[in-house]
Amino acid sequence: MARSWEVGRRTFLRGLGVAMALPMLDAMLPSISRAAAASGNPASTFPRRMGVVYAPNGVNVANFTATGLGADYQLPVTLEPLAPFRKDFTLISGLQQHNTLALGDGGGDHARASATFLTGVHPRKTAGADIKAGISFDQIAAEKIGHLTRLPSLELSGAVTQHSGACDAGYSCAYQFNISWHTVSMPMNPETDPRAVFERLFGDASSDESVAARANRQAMQKSVLDFVLDDAGSLDSKLGASDSRKMDQYLTAVRELEKRVEAVSATAVKPPPGVTAPPMFEDFEQHLDLMFDMIVLALQTDSTRIFTFILSHEGGNRPYPMIGISDGHHELSHHANDPVKLAKLAKIDLFHTKKMAQFLTKIKAVQEGDGNMLDNSMILFGSGLSDGNRHLPDHLPIVLCGSGGGSLTPGRHVEAPGGTAPLNNLFLSMLDRVGAPTDRFGDSTGKLEIIG
Question: Which of 348, 347, 355 is nearest to 317 (CA)?
């Protein structure tokens, strides 16, 4: 029998140093629907999420280029892992970030690619502390809707970050390792340590005892679940059968993720004593999987609605031994049309796309009413360069996943009007749909209406 008892959307399971947000439950819907109706937007029962998954160094352009437009286009080779989601994403051709070009500043295309990708602003060329770019579009959204969630936004990276010093032809490392910028001079440094991300999601930051409690929990090798059992049991006794199953699945997922975090942390290479730096994780694929799963839980529990995830930083020369490639990624991106290098680059692109497909599988598996969480999301998958060999920032590889709460029309290949348009036009449209409308962004010329 269904229960009439309601749960508030901001309910947490609490214990010493732990504050565990809940997934969407049926018992939450009446109060959420009333709040949505009071806001004048009944369609907002389920929140709209917005995220960016960034792959560096451009792509093998030939393998990323689609044939045909509309719903009957031929899926390019690199995107074949996304075939099960063909009706859930829009492939967009013809977008560019003009301010990634040198514009008189000489070398440094990789630094500019990442610094400009979400800001639309040409960064100041400096290796010093006087860095200057622009506020990224995700942070514009965070400023307007971030108060609705525990975390205004979540920034992650699969590569160890570097925040100071010179990295690329006289550009500060701050440009090359960040895509999200809170202010024109303050990047949102991404978190690279899965344990730190887990604690952000499930640790009680409001508690003065949270740091000590976390250390105590880890020393005793106890799970976060051990500290919320009383709360969880009390809640479960009031839930209907469907919600009880959801809670059981959610708590199981949290515990499995926690075990994986513990395992990868145990093998991480720690920095030398006295050196402040994040640990290094040798298994890159395992690291990415953990971070993607953390994003799923963050969105599922409405801990945040905005995220950015850098798979690896621009100019990075990481090898990919898990797919049989010992050459560095950056080196392969400068292929000079060598067919052997192009084939290896295509394998790396395919690996990134497979990781994206696994992520979308988990996003789509989260049910929300008659739909799923992907239906209520806008997740951009792309790069700040198209051809890494020539460092081109035009005809960028851009895939927009999700339906944006019904505001997008996915399942198509579309091309920018006239064959080319600023990427910032897309960002204007995404901001509008996530509830953070903005009149102008970077070199935008208007909203990109072709997405739906």
Answer: 348
